[in-house]
Amino acid sequence: MPTDLPERTFVFAKRIVKLCQSLEQQRGVAQTLSRQLIRSGTSIGANIEEGQASQSRNDFRLKYNIACKETRETLYWLRLLAEAEIVPRDRLQPIMSECNELIAILTAIVKKLRD
Is 41 helix (H, G, I), strand (E, B) or coil? Predict the structure, then answer.
Protein backbone atom coordinates (compact mmCIF):
# COMPACT_ATOMS: atom_id res chain seq x y z
CA MET A 1 0.00 0.00 0.00
CA PRO A 2 1.40 3.41 -0.93
CA THR A 3 2.35 5.75 1.91
CA ASP A 4 2.31 8.89 -0.23
CA LEU A 5 -1.14 10.43 0.40
CA PRO A 6 -1.84 11.53 -3.21
CA GLU A 7 -0.95 8.04 -4.46
CA ARG A 8 -2.85 6.35 -1.65
CA THR A 9 -6.02 8.31 -2.44
CA PHE A 10 -5.57 7.55 -6.14
CA VAL A 11 -5.42 3.81 -5.39
CA PHE A 12 -8.48 4.24 -3.16
CA ALA A 13 -10.33 5.94 -6.02
CA LYS A 14 -9.47 3.03 -8.33
CA ARG A 15 -10.99 0.64 -5.80
CA ILE A 16 -14.13 2.79 -5.65
CA VAL A 17 -14.36 2.79 -9.45
CA LYS A 18 -14.13 -1.01 -9.55
CA LEU A 19 -16.80 -1.34 -6.87
CA CYS A 20 -19.10 1.07 -8.68
CA GLN A 21 -18.60 -0.79 -11.96
CA SER A 22 -19.98 -3.89 -10.30
CA LEU A 23 -22.85 -1.92 -8.72
CA GLU A 24 -23.79 -0.50 -12.11
CA GLN A 25 -24.48 -4.06 -13.30
CA GLN A 26 -27.39 -4.16 -10.86
CA ARG A 27 -30.62 -2.23 -11.19
CA GLY A 28 -32.43 0.31 -9.05
CA VAL A 29 -31.04 1.38 -5.71
CA ALA A 30 -27.60 -0.13 -6.31
CA GLN A 31 -27.12 2.09 -9.37
CA THR A 32 -28.35 5.17 -7.52
CA LEU A 33 -26.01 4.59 -4.59
CA SER A 34 -23.19 3.82 -7.00
CA ARG A 35 -23.50 7.30 -8.50
CA GLN A 36 -23.29 8.90 -5.06
CA LEU A 37 -20.31 6.75 -4.11
CA ILE A 38 -18.37 7.41 -7.32
CA ARG A 39 -18.67 11.17 -6.82
CA SER A 40 -17.49 11.26 -3.23
CA GLY A 41 -14.96 8.43 -3.48
CA THR A 42 -13.09 9.88 -6.45
CA SER A 43 -13.32 13.45 -5.18
CA ILE A 44 -11.02 12.68 -2.26
CA GLY A 45 -7.90 12.20 -4.37
CA ALA A 46 -8.85 15.01 -6.75
CA ASN A 47 -8.96 17.46 -3.84
CA ILE A 48 -5.67 16.14 -2.47
CA GLU A 49 -4.08 16.71 -5.88
CA GLU A 50 -5.49 20.23 -6.02
CA GLY A 51 -4.17 20.85 -2.52
CA GLN A 52 -0.68 19.80 -3.63
CA ALA A 53 -0.76 22.63 -6.19
CA SER A 54 -2.29 25.20 -3.85
CA GLN A 55 -1.00 28.73 -3.90
CA SER A 56 -1.44 29.44 -0.20
CA ARG A 57 -1.69 27.70 3.15
CA ASN A 58 -5.37 28.66 3.30
CA ASP A 59 -6.03 27.12 -0.13
CA PHE A 60 -4.19 23.96 0.93
CA ARG A 61 -6.27 23.73 4.13
CA LEU A 62 -9.49 24.27 2.20
CA LYS A 63 -8.74 21.44 -0.27
CA TYR A 64 -7.75 19.02 2.49
CA ASN A 65 -10.84 19.95 4.47
CA ILE A 66 -13.02 19.17 1.44
CA ALA A 67 -11.15 15.87 0.97
CA CYS A 68 -11.85 14.99 4.60
CA LYS A 69 -15.57 15.71 4.19
CA GLU A 70 -15.71 13.66 0.99
CA THR A 71 -14.00 10.76 2.77
CA ARG A 72 -16.62 10.84 5.51
CA GLU A 73 -19.38 10.89 2.91
CA THR A 74 -17.77 7.95 1.13
CA LEU A 75 -17.75 5.95 4.37
CA TYR A 76 -21.44 6.75 4.78
CA TRP A 77 -22.28 5.29 1.35
CA LEU A 78 -20.12 2.23 1.99
CA ARG A 79 -21.83 1.62 5.33
CA LEU A 80 -25.23 2.02 3.70
CA LEU A 81 -24.36 -0.50 0.98
CA ALA A 82 -23.36 -2.97 3.70
CA GLU A 83 -26.31 -2.34 6.02
CA ALA A 84 -28.83 -2.51 3.18
CA GLU A 85 -27.20 -5.81 2.16
CA ILE A 86 -26.55 -4.59 -1.38
CA VAL A 87 -22.91 -5.63 -1.05
CA PRO A 88 -21.76 -8.20 1.52
CA ARG A 89 -20.09 -6.51 4.50
CA ASP A 90 -17.04 -8.78 4.28
CA ARG A 91 -16.45 -7.59 0.70
CA LEU A 92 -16.66 -3.95 1.82
CA GLN A 93 -14.64 -4.29 5.04
CA PRO A 94 -11.19 -3.71 3.47
CA ILE A 95 -12.25 -0.56 1.64
CA MET A 96 -14.14 0.68 4.70
CA SER A 97 -11.01 0.17 6.80
CA GLU A 98 -8.96 2.15 4.31
CA CYS A 99 -11.62 4.86 4.33
CA ASN A 100 -11.44 5.07 8.13
CA GLU A 101 -7.65 5.36 7.97
CA LEU A 102 -7.92 8.16 5.41
CA ILE A 103 -10.42 9.97 7.65
CA ALA A 104 -7.97 9.76 10.56
CA ILE A 105 -5.06 11.04 8.45
CA LEU A 106 -7.02 13.88 6.89
CA THR A 107 -8.60 14.90 10.18
CA ALA A 108 -5.16 15.12 11.78
CA ILE A 109 -3.81 17.21 8.88
CA VAL A 110 -6.78 19.59 8.94
CA LYS A 111 -6.57 20.00 12.75
CA LYS A 112 -2.84 20.70 12.55
CA LEU A 113 -3.40 23.32 9.85
CA ARG A 114 -6.02 25.06 12.03
CA ASP A 115 -3.55 25.51 14.90
Answer: helix
Write down the pTM of the prediction: 0.94
- How far is the C-alpha of 89 from the C-alpha of 109, rounded, in Å? 29
Contact 44, 74 (CB under 8 A): yes
Q: For 34-60, what is each residue's pLDDT tens digit? A: 999 999 999 999 999 999 999 998 999
Range of 76's domain?
5-114
Cα 43 to Cα 12, 16, 30, 58, 112: the distances in Å are: 11, 11, 20, 19, 22
CATH assignment at residue 47 = 1.20.1440.60
